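Internal ticket #5521
Category: modeling
Description: The requester needs a full-assembly model to guide mutagenesis choices. All entity lines are attached below as received. Residue total reported by intake: 647.
Assigned to: D.W.
Attached entities:
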Amino acid sequence: MQLQEFNQLYCDSLHQYKRRKTSTVKIGDLCMGSDYPIRVQSMTTTDTMDTAASVAQIKRMVEAGCELVRLTAPSINEAKNLENIKKQLLADGIRVPLVADIHFTPNAAEVAAKIVEKVRVNPGNYADKKKFDVIEYTDEAYQAELDRIREKFTPLVRICKEYGTAMRIGTNHGSLSDRIMSRYGDSPLGMVESAMEFLRICEDEGFHNIVLSMKSSNTQVMVEAYRLLVKTMNENNMHYPLHLGVTEAGDGDDGRIKSALGIGALLEDGIGDTIRVSLTEDPEFEVPVAQRLVKRYDNRSAHQPIVNATQPTTAWNPYNYGKRVSTEMSNIGGHNVPRVIADFSHAAEVTPELLKQVGHVYDAKLDKWHMTDLGCDFVYFGSHQPGFMLPNGVKGLVDAAIWNVVTDKVNFYPWFSAADFMNTNALSSTLNFVSVSSHALTDDILQKIKATAKTVLVISTENEHAMPDLRNVIFRLQQQHIDVPVVLHRSFETAVEEEFMLHASTDLGALLIDGMGDAVMLSAPSIKAERVNQIAFGILQAARARITKTEYISCPSCGRTLFDLQETTAMIRKQTDHLKGVKIAIMGCIVNGPGEMADADYGYVGSGVGKITLYRGKEVVKKGIEKETAVDELIELIKGDGLWIEK
Ligand code: SF4
């Protein structure tokens, strides 16, 4: 069975870039959706009651290019103060549309909707308080709940309609209501249904000035939820614009990689009308990252056509993660974690020192190699012939002509061009890597790869529509029942590290979250090899394909934040960043924090001025402890659970 119909429900084409057609939403003077540019937005971190600080921060955000500014409105007081902020901004000549962020307080929403251009409501907590209860609902009881929500939500819808205020129905994976969780589980389907309940009420009221979002800190869940939302809306003849974001993405590399991966995966398929990159950094730093992500699509529709465009089979389900089935060969493919291949083919010479940059450190005194958590699995040396023994845990790849003269055929494998592969019988009995660019990958080559034992396909692309082009090669393999391991290879010329990081994260990460790829290889001669290697492992971690370090889920902070999030995140990170695989959430407030910690193992949550509450999963373990001792207590908690290791 072809998946053609199935997929076209979430995007027009898996091969030709095209923005999804949506309705147009007006947010003050700003139009959003369809052919309007993808809008960049961010959120203040100031106290909304502090007019001067909020105005000053908004000015910095607007200067950085922010087109829409969100502020938290936790109570009626903050909602009312939005008027002062707006007046001051107008007096200073700034007409940026403002958005009030609402959780738990319909009365604040109703006040704010008369003042600002847009309100954001979270269906998980607009009319519900989360108690983490699992309740069995009869159909009648469920309907009674929906009626209760309708009664609470309708007044806001009517105000928005009357005042021309836009609305975002913003579902968060971490804060689904107990009702949704009980019926649909903690799933993309639950997220979509949560939004649809609110959307149906809006439609019944004839209100359509709506944007939707499906955020999660888990990039797989986030992407699946957005796709499912588009499919569900299409089935219901609804075409609302989408706001994209990854929640609690963190800071530094992690935040950027995670955001580029989740947001980029959707932008590549033409989905998304506004984006917010949420970093645990000042909001003005979020804006250039978002701009870099969006800029890639300015002229994308003019890309080269994808050669041999193939529709996917049911082996790929865009709404439910499944790893592509591949044959295990040596340590690659099958159930192995995706491997990392470092590229030193462009190095002037190859020495043992070079390997230090990719996680293999030679100690000359002890004459021993050490491998760090970020030790790459293979190194491609191109036409170099290394004159030293390779460390344990890493294998060398050399061009076929060099491999023919290499004596150590246990630790070195051949790397073929397509032409060499088609004309050779000199093959390794362990592993052979065949590197082909997508446009040159003929069915003859594919069939020879299929027929040749121990062959790994390395796919690359020169098409600007890179991710879909590489994905198309996977579709071709699935159509032809070829299950060899696949290396996803991307090359970048840029010397701008952030650009490289964001683009590589989108191109490779978007495939990894769909279970495609048994290894990754990034070639970026203008970027330090150490950074390329860190970013490759970071992409695997953000896609949840290979965990090599502690994961931090930290909220971006807002007017509710009860401690210095950036400083605290840095402090916790410094002491725990060696705990491979442990997930720690650092959340600014107890109102939304616990609900949005997603699947963190531990939570460090602000619960009062100078007070922290510690969680193990969703369970409170220490309440209201002093912030001065809270990090030590967190470490004690991890130690008590047997998850601590010394640095
Ligand atoms: S969890 Fe963080 S970003 Fe979310 S409301 Fe609380 S302080 Fe604000």
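Resolution: model delivered.
Comment from assignee: The longest strand covers residues 619-626.
Ticket closed.
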